[in-house]
Amino acid sequence: MELSEFTLRIILLFMPGIISLFIIDKLVPHKEFKSYQLFSLSLLLGFICYLLYYPIVKLVTLTGIELKFKFIESLLNKTIPLDLTEIFIVAILSIFVGFIFTYSITYKILYRFAHFIKASNKMGEADVWSNLMNQPEIGWVVIRDVKNDLMYEGWVLAYSDSTDKNDEICLSDVKVYKNSTAQEMYNINVLYLPINKEDMRLEITKMEVN
Q1: Cβ–Cβ contacts within 10 Å for residue 71, how many?
Q2: Where is 90: in which H helix or E strand?
Q3: Please, are residues 114 and 100 in contact by the beta-carbon 8 Å criterion?
C-alpha cells in the first residue's frame, strides 16, 4: 500500500513518539497493544517529547545560538518543510523519555502516588499472578501439580509474564515430591516447568503480607 505524503509527514514528525513506545513495548510486560492504542500512544509520547524539547530551545536561544521550535508550524501547515535537525534532536530525547516511562511503569510510580493520596487501590499489574511474582519478598515456593500428582519445592529463579503465550516457571534447589503422599522422589539443582497456571497451585512459605 502506497503511503500518502501527509502520512509520511506525520510518521516523520512523530518518529520520537514511536521510538519511545518501542522502548516501552520491549521493556515493560503488557498485553498486546491494539492498532488504535499504538497510534494514540505514539502521538501522546511524541507530544511529550516535543513539549520537553521546547524549554531546551528557549534555553539555547538565551545563549545566542539560533534554534527555532518548528513542530507546531510543521504540524499545522503542510507547505512548511520539515526540520529534520529538530526531529533528530527530539528523537534522541525520546530515548530518555522511553526509559523514564519504563522506569515509572516498572516501579508503579503513578500507582504509588495514587495509593499515597488514597485516590486508588489498583495494584498496577496485568493480573494477580504478575502482582504476586513481582513482590520482592517472594523466594521459596511450593508448586502443586495436582493433575500429575507432583509437588515441587524450590527457589524462584524466573517466570513467564502473564502476557506470554506459555506459562513457565524456573526453580532452583528443587525437591520433588509425590503430592498425594508427600513422599520425596528426587532433588535437582534447577527445574524448568512449562505448566499451565490453571493446573498449578502455588504456595508461598514465607512472605510479608501488608
Answers
A1: 24
A2: helix 84-106
A3: no
Q: How far is CA 202 from CA 65, 109, 127, 129, 143, in A?
A: 62, 28, 15, 10, 5
Between the two ends of the chain, the Cα-to-Cα distance in Å is 54
Percent pLDDT > 70 in the chain is: 85
Among 50, 49, 67, 46, residue whose Cα is nearest residue 58? 67
Per-residue pLDDT of the chain (210 residues; tens, 9 = 90+): 456 778 888 999 999 999 999 999 999 877 788 899 999 999 999 999 999 999 999 999 888 888 889 999 998 888 888 999 999 999 999 999 999 999 998 888 888 888 888 888 776 665 666 666 666 666 788 888 888 889 999 888 877 766 555 678 889 999 999 998 989 999 999 999 887 767 778 887 655 544
Identify any residues that bridge with 154 across adjacent strands, giving them in sequence order: 141
C-alpha cell of residue 36: 488504535
Give the dihedral of Cα atoms 3, 7, 8, 13; nearest 10 deg: -160
- β partners of residue 183: 178
Question: What is the number of other CB atoms lying within 10 angstroms of the CB of residue 174?
Answer: 19
Rama region for 106: left / alpha / beta (φ>0; ψ in -120 to 50; rest) = alpha
CA–CA gap between residue 17 and residue 33 (Å, rounded): 15
Q: What is the pLDDT of residues 124-146, one digit of tens each?
A: 665 666 666 666 666 788 888 88
In this structure, which amino acid lies at residue 66?
Answer: E
